[in-house]
């Protein structure tokens, strides 16, 4: 099974899916014009990964913003993580959000309520701009 690395772009997140370490990362913005087209290979990869997962699957979601169609695909991903956990595999999810972004925190809370995967909320500080 191959590792997938996709660099971030203006409308799509950076993606790192490493089957050997079990580390999956989504970072940046997720506002693709066609979320299904962007996320289908990721979800298909996850289906394959589930047949032989690492001892610990650790997912990092560090998105500054995402649209409705991306949120649906993120939920599909989390349901797959649920399946792994239900099969007895160790799964953790780290949800990153800025300390002043109540909306992203609340969305993370909503996801945490919908799935059984352990969520860790990681607060980020915004960098101060030099004047």
For this entry, give a set of tags:
131 residues; globular; 3 helices; single chain; 6-stranded mixed sheet; alpha/beta; 6 strands; Transcription Regulator spoIIAA; 36% helix
Oligomer: single chain
How many E-type strands? 6
Do you know the CATH topology? Transcription Regulator spoIIAA
Q: So what's the CATH class?
A: Alpha Beta
Binned, the helix content reads 25-40%
Mean pLDDT: 94
Placed side by side, the strands forming the largest sheet appear as 1-2-3-4-5-6
Structural class: alpha/beta
Strand content: 25-35%
Please give the count of helices.
3
Largest sheet: 6 strands, mixed
SSE sequence, one letter per element: EEEHEHEHE
Count of distinct structural domains = 1
Overview in brief:
The chain is of the alpha/beta class. The protein has one domain (4-124): Transcription Regulator spoIIAA (2-Layer Sandwich).
What does this structure look like?
- By secondary structure, the chain is an alpha/beta fold.
- The chain has a single domain (4-124), classed as 2-Layer Sandwich (Transcription Regulator spoIIAA).
- It is 36% helix and 32% strand.
- The chain contains 3 helices and 6 strands, in the order βββαβαβαβ.
- A 6-stranded mixed beta sheet has the order 1-2-3-4-5-6, with helices on one face.
- β4 (56-66), α2 and β5 form a beta-alpha-beta unit.
- α1 packs parallel to α2.
- The longest helix has 19 residues, at 68-86.
- The chain is globular.
Tell me the layout of helices and strands.
Layout: E1 4-6, E2 14-18, E3 23-30, H1 35-49, E4 56-66, H2 68-86, E5 90-98, H3 102-114, E6 119-124
Parallel strand pairs: 3-4, 4-5, 5-6
Antiparallel strand pairs: 1-2, 2-3
């Amino acid at each position: 099974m191959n590792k997938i690395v996709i660099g971030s772009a203006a409308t799509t997140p950076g993606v790192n899916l490493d089957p050997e370490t079990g580390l999956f990362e989504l970072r940046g913005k997720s506002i693709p014009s066609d979320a299904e087209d962007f996320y289908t290979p990721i979800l298909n990869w996850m289906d394959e990964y589930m047949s032989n997962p690492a001892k610990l699957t650790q997912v990092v979601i560090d998105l500054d913003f995402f649209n409705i169609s991306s949120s649906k695909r993120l939920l599909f991903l989390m349901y797959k993580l649920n399946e792994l956990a239900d099969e007895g595999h160790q799964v953790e999810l780290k949800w990153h959000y800025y300390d002043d972004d109540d909306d992203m925190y609340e969305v993370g809370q909503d996801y945490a309520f919908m799935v059984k995967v352990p969520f860790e909320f990681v607060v980020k500080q915004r960098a101060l701009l030099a004047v």
